[in-house]
Amino acid sequence: MRDPVVPDAPVANVIPVVGDDGGQDAIGPSLDVRVVLFTIADGRLQVVLHDEAGHASLPLGTPAPAEALDGAARRIVRGAAGLRERYLEQLYTLSVGEPPAWTVIVGYLGLVGAGEPRALRPGGEWHDAARLPQLSEADRMVVEYALLRLRAKLGYTTIAFHLLPETFTFSELQGAYEAVLGQPLDKRNFRRRVIAAGILAPTNAKRREGSHRPAMLYRFRARHDRETYLTPPWSEGA
Amino acid sequence: MRDPVVPDAPVANVIPVVGDDGGQDAIGPSLDVRVVLFTIADGRLQVVLHDEAGHASLPLGTPAPAEALDGAARRIVRGAAGLRERYLEQLYTLSVGEPPAWTVIVGYLGLVGAGEPRALRPGGEWHDAARLPQLSEADRMVVEYALLRLRAKLGYTTIAFHLLPETFTFSELQGAYEAVLGQPLDKRNFRRRVIAAGILAPTNAKRREGSHRPAMLYRFRARHDRETYLTPPWSEGA
DNA sequence: GCAAAAGTGTTGTGTATACACCCATGG
DNA sequence: CCATGGGTGTATACACAACACTTTTGC
């Protein structure tokens, strides 16, 4: 039978299923929340890292007792990075290390709009997503997955708008897509699809910024289709 | 500025970002892994619940120190339910309750093929996914999200095969889709699409099981496109 | 021969792709 | 007047939905 055979659990000592005790007897893991915070600058996708003592790491923090995980992630963005995110989504949870360094890591994806202030607290720095310094195994995994999800969601959600300022030109929007996907897109087809989606509201303003025709400015028409995001209904999303 | 404004964190006391200490000083949450285990029986989508003392709950367990979360989920399926899953995927992590009952729950989605033995340990029972008994808030959320993900993934992955026996007829496959989606599908369009996807290998066998024309048996052609699943590259999937 | 499920095509409609030129402006 | 990015349309291929009848078998 050729069939997805699943290997046995690595540690596999049988721990009985607990009903609903506190579970405080065994030594628990430490828990931390890490955020992969993206923005677009100079037409390139960037990520916040904390460089300390020569090695870089994702901004992270420990949830306060009973603090919602989304709340902890928000707090990390605000506190550690000094930023205000526009979108936040839980990615994946993994368990790394051996006791007593056993840690459960909850990874988050965050987006910062190009309109917001993006100055970072000391120690934090924006890095090109394409050329990241060496990271821990765990951080690498989280970043890699964040990128995978972000790229995939460009296709079927309006997530890209959270990377832009409040009003923006078509070229900026297209540039955001290209920066995330890492490949150029056809201008006419791009416009057609975005317009067909009906998610842009034109403003009357134009942006004049060079010796060429001024560009029309648009605004994201909120229609925040939670539906298509495949995000759990209870999560607070953006 | 009409714009995804994010409310402040609920608990919002500033906890400094920790570098990489063990974090063992604050009281930690208890951690459990819960699995929403689906199968198809009698043409209906079913879920394992543990009925104890009158109220039902998802099968759950506590990860052993340093045990991978996927491993813990597998162990729960094997141990608590007495089953062997064909597919397993992490869903979401949530933090519920107040100290000292503070619990971090990692939710999993599991699939059991209709070919496998599906007898459950005492206390476990298969319930129609459409008519579940009352569950805790947390369990309800996890089940609801599992269904959402499963339905969505039917559309762009081959996940449905993990709900079927090793060989199956077209009608069984279509029935699985219909059971999960909760709506009928057109036979001809369904066949065309599945064949076009090139994921079925015909066997020579036929199934004869009534006073009507025997059906051709197919086998899933493994091509396990991890790609399309949008599952993290490090997860062990099925 | 009849009941019951298996199997099979065509047509229309919409959606995605490929592709090249004129427009408005500043200097 | 020229360099620069802004803005526009068409033709073709492909994907998806709607829809009904013939085939093979057991009884």
Overview of the structural elements:
The structure is a homodimer of 238-residue chains. Chain A has two domains: 105 residues, Nucleoside Triphosphate Pyrophosphohydrolase (Alpha-Beta Complex); 68 residues, Winged helix-like DNA-binding domain superfamily/Winged helix DNA-binding domain (Arc Repressor Mutant, subunit A). Helices cover 25% and strands 28% of the residues of chain A. Chain A has five helices and ten strands; from the N terminus they run ββββαβββαβααββα. In chain A, strands 1, 2, 3, 4, 5, 6 and 7 form a seven-stranded mixed β-sheet that branches. Chains A and B meet through strand 1, strand 4, helix 1, strand 5 and strand 6 of A and strand 1, strand 4, helix 1, strand 5 and strand 6 of B. Chain A binds a DNA duplex (27 and 27 nucleotides) through helix 4.
For the record, the CATH class of the largest domain in chain A is Alpha Beta
Find the biggest chain interface: A-B, 88 and 86 residues
pLDDT < 50 stretches of chain A:
1-25
Number of helices of chain A: 5
Number of strands of chain A: 10
What's the story with the biggest beta sheet of chain A? 7 strands, mixed
